[in-house]
Amino acid sequence: MTADQAYQWLEQHSRETVYLEAFSALANWDQATYIPRKGHPHRAQMQATLAKLLHARNTDPRIGEMLARLEGSDLVQNPTSPQAVNVREWRRAYALQTKIPERLAVELAQATSEGQSVWEEARPKNDWEGFKPVLKRVFALTREVAEAIGYTEERYDALLDQYEPGATTRQIEAVFGELRQATVGLLQRLEASPRKPDPSLLHRHFPRVAQEAFAKEVIATLGFDLEAGRLDTVAHPFMLGLGPGDVRLTTRYDEGFFSMALFGTIHEMGHGLYYQGLPSEHYGTPMGTEISLGIHESQSRTWENLVGRSLGFWRYFWPRAQARFEAFQGVGLEPFYAAINTVQPSLIRVEADEVTYNLHIMIRFEVELALLRGELEIDQAPEAWDAKYQEYLGIRSPTLADGVMQDMHWASGLIGYFPTYALGNLYGAQFFAQAERELGDLQELLARGGFATLLEWQREKIHRQGSRYWPRELLRQVTGEDLNPRYLIDYLNRKFGALYGV
Amino acid sequence: MTADQAYQWLEQHSRETVYLEAFSALANWDQATYIPRKGHPHRAQMQATLAKLLHARNTDPRIGEMLARLEGSDLVQNPTSPQAVNVREWRRAYALQTKIPERLAVELAQATSEGQSVWEEARPKNDWEGFKPVLKRVFALTREVAEAIGYTEERYDALLDQYEPGATTRQIEAVFGELRQATVGLLQRLEASPRKPDPSLLHRHFPRVAQEAFAKEVIATLGFDLEAGRLDTVAHPFMLGLGPGDVRLTTRYDEGFFSMALFGTIHEMGHGLYYQGLPSEHYGTPMGTEISLGIHESQSRTWENLVGRSLGFWRYFWPRAQARFEAFQGVGLEPFYAAINTVQPSLIRVEADEVTYNLHIMIRFEVELALLRGELEIDQAPEAWDAKYQEYLGIRSPTLADGVMQDMHWASGLIGYFPTYALGNLYGAQFFAQAERELGDLQELLARGGFATLLEWQREKIHRQGSRYWPRELLRQVTGEDLNPRYLIDYLNRKFGALYGV
């Protein structure tokens, strides 16, 4: 068999796997949107059957044989050619899938499945004693997984690398350290300022139908193709790309709060734009796939915050919002812009503002890193959590439900995943600064409705790259430098300094 | 390997196949309901990938080996035990899948896929010359399929048996002959009667929201579990069972016509009740599966017509309908009941009334049988079609779109399928007469809202039997006699004779 033939085999195997995975994704979407209540047990059986089939496909020893034929061949000489990129990523995925023993994978799947149910029951009851055993089990198994995957410096690296290829704990600690210091300082200045936005104007009555119509108007204007996607309602919003021409966005509505549906929708749309911008001719192979969760989050947070909560954006959309919502009659653009950018330390990550959000992420990162290292026991996690909230945000949760038990991530086995949320903000600010260098004043561009210009820049620089570069290399290719927290720090200081007059 | 082990292997293989098929069904449902327009090409690729995988599973030679170990073993001694039923039906399916050469299956799949697109384009243009070549090709390939499957008496039997196991052309010709004669006679008497219903009261304004609410009220009252199913809107309604606890009904709304959504919904609900009543402990094996299209249709037509268009049903529901629809203020039950039972020869099968519906089916059956036998050439089909409409229904289509080109079935390869629609009506009437013998006056029962009593009878006698008996045997088990068209004929004569005073 020639290298060409081996490549063709892998390509077809990969494409077919991705088509089959799309069925699982569709079933997930349906589970979150339209499935009848009594359909869940059967759906779980369906998913388990397909997962077993996919696992067998992904660990097929022929993948290893084909890769061995290809590695070192002429076909992969140019490391940024689609062929070389695919071979590199197929190897990465195959290594990961085959390094974890099946016994461990099954135990972890059981523990995390149980973990999610236990979390759902324990959280509203603040039942730490009920929750603790599953958390211990998940962390213990995750340590085993990290050992099985292997690492050079740090156990945590093995986990992180699954979500953010090439990222290291050492680098993240350094970057987060600088960001934390700057953020805590900024937060203190904002809190000390006598000038405060009035967020009450966001808590009037906003009919659901009008919210949905406005959200769709906004995302269509920003460049999301609604003929190649949908927007549905769910309890926990997400974006799900099923394939070329089919991107499912989701949101939720609160008629008493303007921000939830709109900014949530713009956030998911940012993920969706990345997905819609991938090179579809490479669909079914890594070259046509998103490179990392951090890069994904950089796109969603850019559209949600750097664009969607900017003054330029609202200079364009404010008259349109006023036409839709009676509650905004007589409200000026300036107070509205201030209201949507209110900074207020809070306990719940998913409701946090732009300034405090990263502190929530750092707390989780620091706690899970200490747990992984064995510097902290699960029993000590609640106290460590609360102490960090006190230190960074100046508040302390009265309940575990709003403290250490607020996120489902750990119980679901998503350990080593939280940093990607803050990395997304860091990448996003760095990309945005570069776009501004190349495209000129972005606030003026947004105020003119020139969203397509920004999107086309993202398309070319980021989306169409697929998995060509790992995140740090992509950052270097696009911005000419390594990850640099100053972009985010400067952006936050500038924007919120101006808003709060500090 | 013991027979027990062989059985367990087949059972697991069967269940897993059914779980995977459920993904395809979900994707079909999504294609008809919520998929974005641009998602179709990708969805076709997904479906093709899964179809290929399922074909490989269904023709896995190990199935044949396992069946050989089981056939004649103690495990299948009792022919109506779940084990024996499953082995019988696994053999039937495996034989069918392996008898058709892959080359032929692929050619037919291509021809019918193309056939559907060509039909969609050609029908509105009455483009017979454009449609004819694909129809010729599909019929030629279907004859090859019938030859590959094999038959004793008649080529058509091989096709029919796929949809209605055990049914034969000879039997259908006899039964249809009696039904046709009786129907044509009844129709002539009705047309000669001076007493006519006034259907215009069904063509007032019925708001979509009220129609949907009423349709859901009706099906919930009849016994459909809306926590284990849904009702959505599509262009061409269907019922799709995804698995236990998950049945998708669909309908369409016409605000200017009361009957379309409601009776369409009750029809699909009849299919759904059959599906919800299958023995879920046997899900994933034939024992937990519907036995035939004819039996399926017997359940949908029973609820749509024998129940839904009966006077007893409306004695219960008429005050409820009047409460929902302003258009029914001041309308009496009797004229309404007459209106929904208007008999009027028409060109379009899917809009036909209870009396003329079976004549539409017979025309298709007679034409496709003559085509299969080679007694008729495709070129002669339009004239044969029109002549039969003239003879049986006294009307002639001015266009091919409303004549021979009105159904997509032939272009999609559904040949040998039409008879099941009329068989459904025949089975339904025979079952209903038996239910009346056992339960007493059904019109009184329905007028009291005793729908659960009828449903429980169906559950026990029909639904819970799954694939235990082939249709004719099921009929014998339930009613004590073979298929007898007198039940349907007597029902139609009685009901419409009374309505039209003839």
From TrEMBL, chains A, B:
Catalysed reaction, written as an equation: Release of a C-terminal amino acid with broad specificity, except for -Pro
Residues annotated as catalytic: E268
Keyword set, alphabetical order: Carboxypeptidase, Hydrolase, Metal-binding, Metalloprotease, Protease, Zinc
EC numbers: 3.4.17.19
GO molecular function list: metallocarboxypeptidase activity; zinc ion binding
InterPro entries: Peptidase_M32_Taq
Entry keyword Cell wall biogenesis/degradation: no
BP-aspect Gene Ontology terms: proteolysis
Cofactor note: Binds 1 zinc ion per subunit.
Pfam hit, one: Peptidase_M32
Binding site for Zn(2+): H267, H271, E297
Cofactor requirement: Zn(2+)
Function of the molecule: Broad specificity carboxypetidase that releases amino acids sequentially from the C-terminus, including neutral, aromatic, polar and basic residues.
Sequence similarity: Belongs to the peptidase M32 family.
Protein's name according to its UniProt entry: Metal-dependent carboxypeptidase
